[in-house]
Specification:
Layout (H helix, E strand, L loop, with lengths): L3 E5 L11 H12 L4 E5 L5 H8 L4 E3 L2 E3 L4 E4 L4 E4 L1 H11 L11 H15 L4 H10 L2 H15 L11 H21 L14 H16 L2 H8 L5 H12 L4
Parallel strand pairs: 1-2
Antiparallel strand pairs: 1-5, 3-4, 5-6
Length: 243
């Protein structure tokens, strides 16, 4: 079997990978024990690389955009983008160790789109910390495009003081909602005792936070809800052979 090829965004971190969206297929590939290689692409180069691959852009109100992850499977000739579609492709093509068990794909798709932003929100502090771990070429691109998107100068994203305090309060409020929902799972995973892509989805958001937050900030975050979220990330990483 030829290794599959995952297109991802590098960083200055020791393990390099950090992005929640590109980490999802990485976790799936590792869970299914499929061989794969990573092609690292800096933010400003994504459009050129994906055009050369023949990947279609995504339509947005501000114009066409190109995003990773993208997965190239030389065993079938398939070229898939978007993390959820990659997961669905992998589960259909390589069904051992399913991540959409018991016909759950539709329900997990709904979970994927509805749960994270409600219970595990992204705040501007996370974006600021993300820029700090990127290589210089990607950092400039990341800051500029996010400032343009939100029509806000980068310096005003999450300065120390009331705005930063508000980010922390909003983040904790969201995770408290997540704690209430997780209390209804009735087991170790989102689907009770059955591991699924839903757990990978949550874990990759947590991985992003852990990778970009400063040590004292992660310690603060991981103390919430009795340490549930740090433990969940550890559990999923172990399940996916990434611990």
């Amino acid at each position: 079997m030829k290794p599959l090829i995952l297109y991802d965004i590098p960083s200055r971190l020791p393990d390099t990978y950090w992005s929640p969206n590109t980490s999802k297929p990485r976790f799936v590939l590792s869970y299914k024990e499929l061989p794969f290689e990573t092609v690292w692409v800096e933010y400003p180069d994504i459009a050129t690389v994906l055009k050369d691959l023949g990947v279609s852009p995504k339509k947005r109100s501000a114009g066409d955009i190109y995003t990773v992850p993208v997965l190239n499977d030389p065993n079938t000739g398939a070229l898939i983008d978007e993390s959820l579609e990659i997961a669905a492709y992998l589960d259909k093509t390589y069904p051992a160790k399913p991540i959409f068990p018991h016909g759950s794909e539709m329900l997990i798709r709904v979970f994927h789109s509805a749960y994270l932003d409600e219970a595990h929100p992204i705040v501007r502090l996370i974006l600021v910390r993300t820029a700090e771990i990127l290589n210089s070429a990607s950092m400039e691109f990341f800051c500029r495009t996010r400032s343009e998107r939100l029509q806000l100068s980068w310096e005003e994203f999450s300065p120390e003081g009331p705005k930063r305090d508000g980010d922390w309060a909003y983040l904790e409020q969201g995770f408290n909602k997540g704690e209430e929902l997780y209390a209804k799972c009735g087991g170790r995973w989102v689907m009770g005792d059955t591991f699924s892509y839903a757990d990978i989805t949550v874990a990759c958001r947590l991985l992003w936070f852990k990778r970009v937050l400063k040590e004292d900030e992660w310690a603060r975050f991981s103390s919430w809800n009795g340490g549930r979220w740090a433990k969940m990330l550890d559990d999923v990483q172990q399940e996916c052979h990434l611990a």
